[in-house]
Amino acid sequence: MNTTPIVEELLQSFERRTQIAPPFSARDPQFDMTAAYAVQRDLATRRVEEGHRIVGRKVGYANKAVWRTLKIDTLVWAPMFDDTVTPASSHEPLSVRRLWAPKIEPEIVLRLGRPVAHGASDPTAVLDAVEAIALGFEIVDSVFADWKFHPTDFVAGYGLHVALVVGEWRSMAGADLAAVTEQLAQFRVRLSKNGVLAAEGGGRNVLKSPVLCLGELASAVARQTGEAPLHDGDIISTGSLTDAQFIGRGETWTATVEGVDLPELTLETV
User: Fold this and answer.
1) What is the pLDDT of residue 118?
2) What is the four-CA torsion angle of 106, 140, 167, 188, rounded to 10 degrees?
3) Domain holding 167: CATH number?
4) Domain count, the chain
5) Average pLDDT, whole number, for the chain?
6) Spans in the chain with pLDDT lower than 50
7) Domain coverage including residue 132
8) CB 127 within 8 A of CB 180
9) What's residue 211's pLDDT?
10) N or C of the chain: less Cβ packing under 10 Å?
11) Which of 94, 37, 90, 84 is nearest to 56 (CA)?
């Protein structure tokens, strides 16, 4: 399909801060995942041509329970860039002033030391490809009005990705991979807003483990025509561990995990 009209509409929406309605899937029943990923790649190419660098991928729809309802057969993904992924150690508050209706998602972030084998299903073997893990906050915002869209629209619109704030990295060098694999399947996370509990979740909410989510991503990417495979150095944000929460200015968000050795993560908004 000719992706240019959709690419141009998305670019104008991002630039002018005007939301899109109705979404592409509602206008054209033939707008499928192949078309959506083609739009996403064209958008990413534009950003690279502007001087940005793709540093990894974010995952969406990592809860298999919703796949049948949404008529998808695997998770989805979108690129993240050198100007959207930042370390929490910078202590810079996140500005949400120009966003429409942003949400925050606590996620496990993985940095690859080598490519993940296509079809790898053993979680410890998948974890062996991971160089380091961290707790992160992904900020998402819907370019589609009222947060109404289909997964194909989600894919075309960069997976709604705005930013990923990454906490302190924990190296996997010398780690007991079997033990860490078990921890990542069982740990719990608490998300608080201004000191008040807002949501709870854990590793089982992302395909039963962030590591299994990574394995599924590697296989799904390999099956999608035109997609570059995962490679060493990639940063992978593996999906929200809790229900996403709306955020506004002047808030302090904190994620605390139990069951895996990762420090607390805090984010302030302005």
Assistant:
1) 75
2) 0
3) 3.90.850.10
4) 1
5) 96
6) none
7) 4-268
8) yes
9) 97
10) C
11) 84
